[in-house]
Give the backbone structure.
Amino acid sequence: MKKVIAIVALVFGFALTAQAQDKMMKTGTIALTQTPGEFTQKQLEVKEGTYVFEIANKGVGHDVGFVLVPKGKDITKEANHIKTAYVTQMVATGTTQKSKPTTLAKGEYVYFCPLNPTATDNTLVVK
């Protein structure tokens, strides 16, 4: 799709930045809910693409966050975190916050919250 957009841009004599091209691509939403000590969704499966993570805090009693890591990588190392998947601000009880658009390649990922000691075996499978 990006190639088609770039070709059209060249034919009509204008250039699109990669960021503008990405905005033209469809972005999906992955909604996850945190309750005290866990995510209500333990395993998800989505198609390869670009998504915004929408994290809801349902009665945790304090702020929560969101971390996404490719499966098999050390989750304790921040260098392995997919930073665009972080919520743009902490999620207070009773609220929802979103991440930046995050492009997911085929594979498996794990997600967790370091502030709401959730299990670290929640799985996101991208087909």
The chain has one domain: 27-126. Residues 27-126 form a domain with the Immunoglobulin-like fold (CATH 2.60.40.420). The first strand starts at residue 27 and ends at 35. The mean pLDDT is 87.
